[in-house]
Design a protein that fits this description.
The complex is a heterodimer of chains A (301) and B (477). Chain A has eight helices and eight strands; from the N terminus they run ββααβααβαβαβββαα. Chain A is α/β, with parallel strands linked by helices and 301 residues long. Chain A has two domains: 44 residues, no CATH class; 209 residues, Rossmann fold (3-Layer(aba) Sandwich). In chain A, strand 4, helix 5 and strand 5 form a beta-alpha-beta unit. Chain A starts with 26 loop residues before the first strand and ends in a 20-residue tail after the last helix. Chain B has 477 residues and is an alpha/beta fold. In chain B, the strands form six sheets. In chain B, strands 7-6-5-12 form a four-stranded parallel β-sheet, covered by helices on one side. In chain B, strands 8-9-10-11 form a four-stranded parallel β-sheet. In chain B, helix 10 packs across helix 19, helix 18 runs parallel beside helix 19 and helix 19 packs across helix 20. Classes of the chains: A alpha/beta (301), B alpha/beta (477). The interface between A and B is large, with 55 and 62 residues.
Amino acid sequence: MNKHCNGTTPPQGTSSEQRLAANDSPVTDNPWESLRRFTDARIGLGRAGISVPTKHLMEFQLAHARAQDAVHSPLPTEQLIDNLIQQPWCPAGIPFQLHSQADSRAVYLQRPDLGRQLNSSSQQLLQDHHKPTAKAEPYDLAIAIVDGLSSRAIEDNCVPFLSQLIPALTSHSNPWSIAPLALVEQGRVAIGDHVGELLKARCVLVLVGERPGLSSPDSMGLYLTWNPQVGRTDAWRNCISNVRPAGLKYPDAVRKTLYLMEEARAREVSGVQLKDRTDDSVLEQDGSTPSHNHNFLISHD
Amino acid sequence: MTTDKQPADSQRSRYQHRVGQRTYHFRDLADLMAKATPARSGDRLAGVAAHNAEERAVAQMALAEVPLKTFLQEALVPYEDDEVTRLIIDDHDAVAFEPIAHLTVGDFRDWLLSDFATPAILERIRAGVTPEMAAAVSKIMRNQDLILVAKKCHVKSAFRNTIGLPGHMSTRLQPNHPTDDTSGIAASILDGLLYANGDAVIGINPATDNVPQACRLINMMAEVIDHYEIPTQSCVLTHVTNTIEAIEQGAPVDLVFQSIGGTQATNDSFGFNLATLAEAQDAALSLKRGTVGDNVMYFETGQGSALSANAHHGLDQQTCEARAYAVARKFRPLLVNTVVGFIGPEYLYDGKEITRAGLEDHFCAKLLGLPMGCDVCYTNHANADQNDMDNLMTLLGVAGCTFIMGIPGSDDIMLNYQTTSFHDALYARRALGLKPAPEFAAWLEKIQIFRDGGSFTLNNQLPDLFQRSLGNLLGGY
C-alpha cells in the first residue's frame, strides 16, 4: 500500500539491472505495519532506501502545517461573538472582547508574563461593567475564552462545549449566575484570574487552546480557579486537558467540569486541595480505549 | 561621542572594555557572561541579555581577556548558598588545570583549536576545567569551533555495550505511549529495533509517573532485552526517588534517570539533591547488572530549566546549563543529553537559536568529559521544522555526538513534540559513516536486522527470531 510507481519509462540504453522494472517499488514496506492497531505512533512506515517514503513525508508535513496554523492563526473573535450571542444559552450581556499585554504573536511566544495580564483598555472595560450595578450580587462564575496556543481549539470546541455546560449550570437546583462571556486574545491560562477578579466572580473557568501536538492541533484545555486573583499559581487551578472530539469528548468534559465546580463551591477551594479527591472519583472514569497490556514480543515462546 | 557617567572608583567593576571613545562597563562576571552570550529569547526574558549587538560583541571582547583563574576566585553563585558551586570548587583538580592555568578565555579558544590540544591532552585537562570556563570559551566560539573541538574530546562509557567510541553514534529508542499501553510500547520497540535503533538505551517516559507503573515498564523491557539477548540497557525516566523505591522492591533496574539543573535551587525544585543521586547510584551499582561497564546513571538537561524554576541567580541560561554538567560528571553517567528544543520559544525562539544551543551544550559537556547526546527536537509553537532538525542532527553527527533519540516517524505521541526518527539515525549513519556501539552492531548482524552492517543496509525480510514471536500475530490479522 506504500508502493509508488513513477510510471516513467527508463531512457533507452539503460542496462537491464539498472532499469526499474514496472512492478518494482523503490519503497520497502514493513510486514509489521498491522501493529499500528496497537498505537497511534508512526510505526511500520516502510522506507525508500533508509528514508521515510514520500507518502508518509507528505502526511507528516500536513500534520505539522496544521499544528503551526493552529498556533499562528488569529482567533476570529467577531465571528465567534456573533455565533455566541445567537445561542439560546448565552449568558446575558454582550461578550467582552479583551486583549492581553502581548500585542503580537511573536511577543506572546517570547513573553509569557505579558500574556497573563490584560492590557489597560481591557481592564477598563471590565471595571466599567461594574459601575452601574455596584451593589449587585457578585457573579458565581466568569467564563474566559482564551486563544492560548491554538485558536483552532477554541474555534472548533468552544461553542459545542459551552452549549452542554451552560444549560447544566443554569438549570441546576442551585443555579449558577454567570457573567457575560469574556473573549481574550493573546492570552495565557493565568489571564483568567485577572478577568475573574475584575468581574468580581467567585470562580473562573478558562477555556484555552493547548499547545498543539502533531495529531492534536485542536486540543482545548479547561482551568478552574475558585476566588480568582492576580498572582494565583498552578497550585490553585484544576485542569481538564485534551477536550476535543478525538480526545476527551464534550459530555465527559462537562461531567468532570460540573463535578469540580460543585466541589469548589461546596468547599470554597480549588487546585491541589480538590485534585486529590477527583483523581480517584472522576479522572479514573476516563472513556479512553481499553488497555491491551500485552507484551506480544515475548508471548509466543 | 558618548559621555558615560563614571561610577565612583570603589563601586566600579573590574569588567569594562574600551572601544574607540566609549567605555563599556559590566556589573560583574555574571553580567559579562550573560551579555557575551549569543542572542536567545530566554536571556531576554530573564532581562540579562545584551541590549544590542554592539554591547554583545564588546562583552565578548572583554570576556576573551578574562584569565581562566578568575573563575576559581569569583563564584557566580555563592559558595555558601549552593552545593553545585561547592561541588565545582571542591572537586577542581589543580594539577590537571596546570597546563592551561596561564591562559585567558581568548587564549583558551586558540589553545583548544590548536594542534597542542590532542584528544589525549584534552582528556588530561578535563578535571581542571570548570563549567564556567567551558561556558565562557563557548560564548566566543563559532559553531565550527564548537564542532571541531568537541570532535577531539573522546568520552567512553559502558554498561552492556560500549558507548562513545570515535566514529560511532548511538540512539535511544524512545517508545512512549500516551497511556503506557504495553502492546503500544512493544510495537514501537519492535519498530525501533528493526530499524537498528536502541543501542544507547531503550528509555520510556512514563505517562503515569509512579512506582508501580515504573516497575511494570522496567520488568517489561528487561524481559525483551533478556529474551532477544540484546546488548543494550533499559530505563524508565521517572523521578530518582521512584527508581530508588523500585530497586528496593526488586525491580531489574539498569539505569537511574534524573533531570538535573545547574543550581541547587533548580534541583530543589526537581525534588532531589546530590545526596539523593549518590544514594541512587549506589543502589543501582549494587544490582551489578552491567556486563561490560558500570556507568549506571542517565541525566537530562536543557537550557532554561533554571529560569523556569526561578532559580537562575541572575545568570544566563547557557552558564546555568554548563553548571549542570558538574552535577552529571560527579556520578559517572552512561548517558547525558540536552533536550534542546523541548522547553519552548520563550527560551530558544527558533531553529537558529536551538541549533546554537545544541552545539554549545554538546561542546561544553564533551570538554568536561561527559558522554553527551542530544534530543534534537522542537515543539509546534517554536519557529522550527524538520529541516532545522536535519541541520542540527548533521552538525552534531560531525561533532561526534554520543547519541540522539529515535522515535517512530519523529512524532512523540505522549510528549507532543518532534524529535529525530528511527529513519533519521540511519540517514546520519549513511551520510557520515557513524556506526552503532560495537556489541549492538554485532547483534544486528547476527540476527539479520542488518543485511550488511558496513553499508547500513536493512534486511527486507522480518528476521527469523522475530518471525517466530510475531508469526501468529501478523499472520492472523
